[in-house]
Amino acid sequence: MKISGSGKLSAGKIDDELSTSGSLRIAGDFECNAFSSSGSTRIQGNLTVLGDIKNSGSFRLMGSLYADGDARFSGSSSVEGEISVKKDLVNSGSLRAGNKIEVHQDINFSGSSKVQGDIISHRDIVISASSTIHGSIIGVDISIGRERLIKKSMYKHPNKIYGDIFAKKDINLIGTLVEGDVRGRDVNIGRGSEIKGKVYYVDDIQVHEKAILPYNPVKVNIENLEKIKRKFKNN
Predict the structure, then answer these.
(1) pLDDT band for position 235 (cuts 50, 70, 90)
(2) Average pLDDT rounded to a whole number, residues 81-101
(3) Which residue among 35, 61, 64, 190 is buried most deeply as judged by most CB within 10 Å?
């Protein structure tokens, strides 16, 4: 189904891709095989996509988003509920989420992001643009921030995490404020970062001279890290 002008749909389901380049309003929960928007879309309910979802325009969802494929956002995207994606989540635009984000594959944010809950990936997380996360971050390898962003940003910390960070493997932080703890195997606390909680590591720790840590890093074994992980995920 293609909509190129101004359209309105009721709540329901279609066994097809929904593609819009105009102005679309959906009054309630909606399900489709794939979704693509390059115009202005407003949905007053939940959206379930059995394949990929793409937005390069203005997208606002009043409910939650469930996608079985990839989610790729390059425009302005706002989801008031949770975001659940079975494959990759890529944002190069402006993303706002009112609840947690859970992704089964990789997360890559090269655009601005503001999330009012946890970010969970079953694989890797890369956040290279300014972000504000009002929750914790869980992944395999986690990288937040970049040197160029520190030089250009008017803020002391371009990235703010108001929770904990847990990585199954490596963590690399640059210009990042973390209100909670940081836990990983190899941990790099880069320039401009500030960790208000404790830092736990298994194999290696690197702390930049211009990073701020109120406590000395704590070396733990992998078994203790796994115990921390289980406790962390249950909180």
Answers:
(1) low
(2) 98
(3) 35
**Per the domain annotation, does 213 fall within a domain?**
yes
- φ, ψ of residue 156 to 5 degrees: the values are -65, -40
The total domain count for the chain is 1
Beta carbons within 10 angstroms of residue 58's beta carbon? 18
For residue 205, the enclosing domain spans 64-234
Reduce the DSSP state of residue 148 to 3 states and report it: helix
Tens digits of per-residue pLDDT, 18-46?
A: 999 999 999 999 999 999 999 999 999 99
Tokens (6 digits) for 20: 């819009």
- DSSP type of residue 191: T
The pTM score is 0.92
Domain assignment present for residue 84? The answer is: yes
**Is 138 inside any structural domain?**
yes
Q: Is residue 102 in a domain?
A: yes
Identify the CA nearest to 159 among candidates 176, 172, 174: 176
